[in-house]
Amino acid sequence: MSKPYFSFQWHITDECDQRCKHCYIFSDGKHSCLKSMTWEQIQDTFYNCLDFCEVFGRMPYFYLTGGDPILHPDFWRLLELFHDHDIKFTILGNPFHLNDQVCRELKWFGCEKYQLSLDGLRETHDWFRKPGSYDCTLEKVKCINKAGIRSVIMTTVSKTNMSEVTGIIDAVAEAGANVFAFARYVPSGGDLDASMTAQEYRCLLAACDKKFKEYEAEGCQTYFNKKDHLWTLYEYETGEFTFPENAEKGMIYGGCNCGACHITILPTGDIFACRRVADSKVGNVFEDRLADVWLTSMEYYRDFDKFNKCSRCKLLAWCRGCPAVAKGTNGDFYADDPQCWASVENGLIEG
């Protein structure tokens, strides 16, 4: 039996060609010194991650990111380290430095997926990121696919761009992206409107679901990944999600990975429970053994009975919304997800 995977979202550098309006690094306007790991720190971090997986019987999976990881001077050296240990990985990066040769090399080193971002149609996306970014992103889907790497397009949704999401789906399908998903904006001090109501978000999910099904019926090759855990709530209402007959009370079967099978490591070495959860530092990889941190500081993020609303919801074991959005909105990891519409009235929340 193969070991379960554990995911490390590893930010090796803050260096980036863009200054996105919703970026955690730049959105507050206070980031004056960009950080990057040294090669020695990269090696120490890598073996700390392998030690963690050895202790807990997991297989490591790395989501390599930044900033843009390809800008790190030791980027290719790190990929050699992955290759030497037969480790597959995904890159979350920008499109600007990709070409056919680069993508072929990424594939050879073991890159399985390359994730790009699309945060609106042309005018909106280029406002979010930088002029020309929209067209460049869609153009690079082809060379990613040609190299045999799965192309992923990710959208960060807020009230600022929610009206364009169905149009983004059309653009992504036309470009031939292998995977499309979206996640919600976590308020972090930027210019984006975070006031999307629960009912507005439910209507957006319904519109996207309709679009997804239309493309699937046409034989579209894009896989529409329902990443946001509130899709579970939506599909419970539509009858597409039902409770497994063998589900055990008290077990957690899905939903947010924070505290379950994921951690984030920043270029400073800081270990975060989740990059999207503000102030979720639990240690530093240059000073702490990850296996020890997992059993101590990370316990705070696994106290499921503390969820104000989710702990009373029938979908607790499969959903829990997005605690990062709750934290960004209300300052509390265990507060109500502001876009969740589960209630006593619809029979999901105990009174």
Question: Tell me, what's the shape?
Answer: globular
Mean pLDDT: 93
Residue runs with pLDDT of under 50 for 5 or more positions: none
Please give the count of helices: 10
Instruction: Let me know the largest β-sheet.
Output: 10 strands, mixed
Distance between the termini: 43 Å
Task: Describe this structure as you would to a colleague.
Helices cover 32% and strands 15% of the residues. The chain has helices at residues 39-56, 75-84, 100-109, 122-128, 133-146, 165-175, 198-217, 230-238, 290-295, 323-330, and strands spanning 5-11, 59-65, 89-92, 111-117, 150-157, 179-184, 223-224, 262-265, 270-272, 281-284. The longest helix has 20 residues, at 198-217. The chain is globular, with a radius of gyration of 20 Å. The protein has 351 residues and is α/β, with parallel strands linked by helices. The mean pLDDT is 93.
Layout of SSEs?
Layout: E1 5-11, H1 39-56, E2 59-65, H2 75-84, E3 89-92, H3 100-109, E4 111-117, H4 122-128, H5 133-146, E5 150-157, H6 165-175, E6 179-184, H7 198-217, E7 223-224, H8 230-238, E8 262-265, E9 270-272, E10 281-284, H9 290-295, H10 323-330
Parallel strand pairs: 1-2, 1-8, 2-3, 3-4, 4-5, 5-6, 6-7
Antiparallel strand pairs: 8-9, 9-10
Helix pairs in contact: 6-7
Produce a short descriptive summary.
The chain has ten helices and ten strands. By secondary structure, the chain is of the alpha/beta class. Helix 6 (165-175) runs parallel beside helix 7.
Summary keywords:
single chain; 351 residues; alpha/beta; ten-stranded mixed beta sheet; 4Fe-4S; S-adenosyl-L-methionine; rSAM; Radical SAM/SPASM domain protein, ACGX system; Aldolase_TIM
